[in-house]
Amino acid sequence: MSATFAKAGSWDTLEPKLSPFILETLATLGFSEMTPVQASAIPLFMKNKDVVIEAVTGSGKTLSFVIPIIEKLTRKKRLAKNEIGAIVITPTRELAQQISSVFSIFLKDPSLPKHALIIGGTTTLHDDIAEFKELGPDILIGTPGRLRDLLIGKGSEKSVVNTKELEILVLDEADRLLDMGFSQTLDNIITHLPKQRRTGLFSATMTDSISEIVRVGLRNPVKVVVKVEDIISKDEQRTPLTLDIGCIVCEPHQKLAQLIRIINREKTTKKCIVYYATCACVDYFYKILTKLSQLKGISIHSLHGKMDTKRRTATYQSFINLPTTSKALLLCTDVAARGLDMPDVDFIIQMDPPQDPKVFSHRCGRTARAGKKGKAILLLVKGREEVYVDFLKIRKIPVRLLSYILSDNSNTIVTQDTIDEENDSLLKQVQDIVLADRDLHDKVVCDKHLN
Ligand SMILES: Nc1ncnc2c1ncn2[C@@H]1O[C@H](COP(=O)(O)OP(=O)(O)OP(=O)(O)O)[C@@H](O)[C@H]1O
């Protein structure tokens, strides 16, 4: 995959200058230049401005706050063991884990600030407090509920965290945090923190819903919108230029056949993410797809919010750590739509349009990251296609309506008859799988894709 990342100057042009250990780490990562969002956000943060940053998926927002946090805390006097200097809040555990691993790359030397992951799930609040006391982290990265409990205390568990030296608060995927109903929890956290701090909100899709958090949590923020412009049409767009988005229109009962066709015909595809609307759909289709002869040899994984945390982490880790040579599918809900930076994902399939239109660009944005190429396909039910495509275009998301000749590397024209034949044989297999599995048989879910 070729990378055509927009570059915005070398790191050593930043003022104030970055510490040598940060520059060395960036060089080790092979990041010779900043991305536009990094070139805009880092100096603002370093000059003590509050920021609201909106930039397309995969444009490098994470380092736009990770670097200023590390830089600021390294320059500061050493914090006491119970004091913290920065907090990063994310809507999901996976995203918090990912951000924590980015901090780990920079903070290897024991003399540097320490960071801790506060996400609950596998640990109790009591465990987190004990770990905090032992490690004395300077940076906390976590999800809202457990972070609030650790910072403020809950029931008989009293907080041991001193926030008076806090320098930076970051809300990553800020609009999602609010959409998920964390507004009260965030208010509790914000009012508990010192006013003399810098706050940054980051997302690829800012909405009006963030205005309340801006009002209570930020002071004269600088808003930065990093735009992407198509070089040929000069049109502004809200998705990466390297992302090719298509849409296939079919009957509900043809969706499964379409999915198999896309997966099998896209010979170059390595890792593909398939989005479903509900956790039940993911479970159901995981059972079906893992047994279909057409997908033999493809490593299939599933991820959704109703899985227990251990399984969720294990699935996620095994998907991202797969060797680049394997072809793999991740079936998931929107729990994996935002922020996750999964290497080598080059194809996204959306079995249904998301309920929240903003999610569309986040789902697609799991591919075509950092200037690499990627494809995304949405399956739409006949009759709604034009409205939906117009709707995306209004939101500056360029979509092509694809015909059945879809991505056919062998250049064979796929006709309606071929589709019907493939579909019949598939449905027969699905019926057999369902009949042989009592569990599946009892669950008449997701049948809109099958009947
Ligand atoms: N300056 C750089 N040069 C090259 N690659 C970079 C640079 N900065 C970040 N990257 C890489 O780009 C990818 C996307 O970065 P990141 O995850 O921060 O995107 P994002 O803007 O937060 O996306 P999303 O909106 O989906 O959360 C990562 O793999 C990251 O390592």
From TrEMBL:
DEAD-box RNA helicase Q domain residues are 11-39
What reaction does this enzyme carry out catalytically? ATP + H2O = ADP + phosphate + H(+)
Coiled coil spans: none
Start and end of every Helicase ATP-binding domain?
A: 42-224
InterPro entries given in the database record? DEAD/DEAH_box_helicase_dom, Helicase_ATP-bd, Helicase_C-like, P-loop_NTPase, RNA-helicase_DEAD-box_CS, RNA_helicase_DEAD_Q_motif
Q: Which UniProt keywords apply?
A: ATP-binding, Helicase, Hydrolase, Nucleotide-binding, RNA-binding
Broadest EC class assigned to this enzyme:
hydrolase
A Pfam family cross-referenced in the UniProt record is Helicase_C
Q: Where is this motif: Q motif?
A: 11-39
Residue ranges of domain Helicase C-terminal in the record: 255-427
EC number(s) given by UniProt? 3.6.4.13
> What Gene Ontology molecular function terms does this protein carry?
ATP binding; hydrolase activity; RNA binding; RNA helicase activity
What's the family? Belongs to the DEAD box helicase family. DDX55/SPB4 subfamily.
- Give the protein's function: RNA helicase.
Q: What is known of its domains?
A: The Q motif is unique to and characteristic of the DEAD box family of RNA helicases and controls ATP binding and hydrolysis.
Indicate what this protein is called per its UniProt record.
ATP-dependent RNA helicase
